[in-house]
Write a structure and sequence with these properties.
Length: 362
């Protein structure tokens, strides 16, 4: 009889220690606050924001990066010294660079040459390297090429996001959310509203709702240059677009493998100007700046709340505060950038003003 031993004791010890390090990070920082958003008490509807900006790397993508690293470690794809490569110019790359540094692994983010200097600095601050391509569509091919050349691992967030997260529980975002709602007036939300980038968050929440036999509905908001909404509405999973999303962190020009449309009850298309108007409008209410994807979430949540009020329904709605607005000082909070993009916020300001004045959605 012939046998082959592919795993040395040294390798297994390293992997065990790597898992411990990542779980220790989760033990320190996995949960985030659930913040009530101030709405008129007589509306009978409560809105809550799950504040993911308080993670060590400042965004919702910290959860994803942790899950992707654990998934890769437990599948034997990452061992001591393995270079980790990801196709990302945004928050995922920042978070993955953080975990790679915890494990003393090289990390390379493959990104378009047009990526802002602010995002590059965030990735490099976490110990990552940035590798540039001229065309955004070349990121995936170049990531695979680098992984092969360096004998590394291409993390591939858009393929593995929905399967890397334990959707049954294990303090995932859905379980945390529902546990924090336990003592609220309407403990089981009528709606949860999230955006889709990889699709991993919506898949996790949608599956968890069904697994726990809850009546909560899941709404996914989609920015204007993304194809998720049209593909879901028309059942066209092979649909592709020609532009990237202006709302960082959500929206894709193709339907990613981690997008599970069957767990979604409703999708809402949100103009980019509406997303940005929302974050600027609520700055005075929240006393802080938030990122564009949070604006997309809020626009969808406000619309749903107005519909609940019109129907005479009470209840709760939960959405995500995905990251802070300090990353977007030169874009969403910059009037010159808005003008160059041709974005007019005034019509959307009027919709928001009417909503907060009367609870109606025009």
């Amino acid at each position: 009889m012939t046998s082959v031993d592919r795993c040395s004791e040294t390798t297994r010890e390293w992997v065990c220690e790597a898992v411990r390090i990542i779980e220790a990070d989760a033990n320190r920082s996995a949960d985030t606050h659930l913040l009530p958003f101030p709405l008129p008490a007589d509306w009978g509807v409560q809105l809550y924001l799950k504040d993911e900006s308080t993670h060590p790397t400042g965004s919702l993508k910290h959860r994803l990066a942790r899950s992707l690293f654990l998934y890769a470690l437990c599948n034997g794809w990452i061992t001591e010294g393995t270079p980790v490569i990801e196709a990302s110019s945004g928050s995922t790359a920042v978070s993955e660079a953080y975990f790679a540094r915890l494990l003393n692994l090289p990390f390379i983010a493959v990104m378009p040459a047009s990526t802002s200097t602010e995002k590059i600095a965030l990735i490099e601050r976490q110990g990552g390297q940035c590798h540039f391509v001229d065309e955004p569509s070349a990121m995936y091919t170049e990531s695979r090429r680098l992984a092969n050349e360096l004998d590394g691992h291409f993390m591939d967030q858009f393929t593995h996001a929905e399967r890397a997260t334990d959707w049954r529980g294990n303090n995932n975002i859905a379980e945390s959310m529902f546990q924090q709602m336990a003592l609220e007036p309407h403990r089981e939300p009528a709606w949860i509203v999230v955006g889709a980038g990889t699709g991993g968050t919506s898949a996790t929440i949608g599956r968890y709702i069904r697994y726990q036999s809850m009546r909560t509905h899941l709404a996914v908001v989609d920015p204007e240059c993304s194809v998720f909404f049209d593909a879901w509405r028309d059942t066209q999973p092979d649909l592709t677009g020609c532009r990237g999303s202006r709302i960082e962190g959500i929206g894709r020009p193709r339907v990613e493998p981690s997008f599970v449309g069957q767990v979604i009850d409703r999708m809402i298309k949100v103009p980019d100007a509406a997303s940005i108007a929302a974050i600027r409008y609520v700055e005075g209410i929240l006393g802080r700046r938030v990122g564009g994807s949070t604006g997309t979430n809020l626009w969808g949540a406000f619309q749903i709340i107005a519909e609940m009020l019109a129907a005479g329904r009470e209840g709760s709605v939960v959405t995500l505060l995905c990251d802070g607005g300090e990353r977007y000082a030169h874009t969403y909070y910059n009037d010159e950038w808005l003008a160059k993009q041709g974005l007019d916020l005034d019509p959307h300001y009027r919709v928001l003003a009417e909503f907060f004045e009367s609870g109606t959605w025009q």
